[in-house]
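Private note to self, pasted from the team thread so I don't lose it. Backbone tokens:
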């Protein structure tokens, strides 16, 4: 979802970092072979993830929602040399695709895939993280926050994607629309939680950045 005009959007992209060749390949193959290719973060948001990761320079990164691995590779660009990126996805059909691209990158040995429901995997991760990207099923965003907050180091960052939910956050809530309800609840939860400071950035479909105090 783009909230600014196409011309302005083109200008914004043109005046931002170029997309690395490997990520262009990954995007092409995702569009050729994988369902719902629009789920992938893409060039502009990917460069934002990369730059934020470089600013944070995390040791450990957690990603909830790998899809074909685009955002994981962007986040890995800022990871410390001895760092680890743990990425979770429930869809086993994506596993080999992800691995192929992780291994084509320089970060392959540092990227660990976890296959299964993030709600079950997160409690078993015996690690703390400096950067966490939440980009899976919207209905569980509040649950993910509650599971990860104690695994986030002080000064660590949570990035949450799709927090404007194609603008539906402003529409009257339909009783059966569980995803929008969860996004609304999540946006309130992270605004009000005293353990973090939060700014919602109107980038693409909405990207919130929260820092642990
Ligand atoms: C929007 S896509 C992630 C896109 C990816 N972060 C990127 O930017 O390229 C969401 C992913 O979350 C995964 N997912 C959905 N529910 C999940 C769950 N309960 N546990 C783990 N992964 C889940 C889906 O299989 C899908 O691949």
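Design output:
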């Amino acid at each position: 979802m783009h909230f600014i005009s196409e011309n302005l959007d083109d200008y914004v992209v043109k005046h931002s970092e170029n997309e690395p060749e490997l990520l262009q390949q990954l995007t092409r193959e995702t569009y050729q072979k994988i369902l719902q290719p629009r789920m992938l973060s893409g060039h502009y948001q990917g460069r934002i993830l990369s730059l934020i990761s470089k600013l944070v320079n995390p040791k450990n990164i957690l990603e909830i929602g790998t899809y074909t691995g685009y955002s994981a590779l962007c986040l890995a660009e800022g990871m410390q040399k001895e760092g680890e990126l743990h990425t979770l996805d429930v869809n086993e059909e994506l596993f080999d695709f992800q691995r192929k691209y992780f291994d084509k990158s320089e970060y392959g040995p540092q990227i660990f895939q976890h296959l299964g429901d993030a709600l079950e995997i997160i409690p078993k991760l015996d690690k703390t993280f400096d950067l966490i990207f939440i980009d899976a099923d919207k209905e569980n965003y509040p649950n993910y926050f509650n599971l990860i907050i104690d695994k986030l180091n002080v000064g660590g960052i949570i990035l949450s994607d799709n927090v404007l939910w194609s603008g539906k956050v402003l529409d009257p809530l339909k009783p059966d629309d569980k995803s929008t309800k969860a996004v609304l609840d999540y946006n309130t939860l992270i605004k009000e939680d005293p353990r973090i400071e939060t700014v919602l950035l109107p980038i693409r479909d909405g990207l919130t950045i929260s820092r642990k105090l």
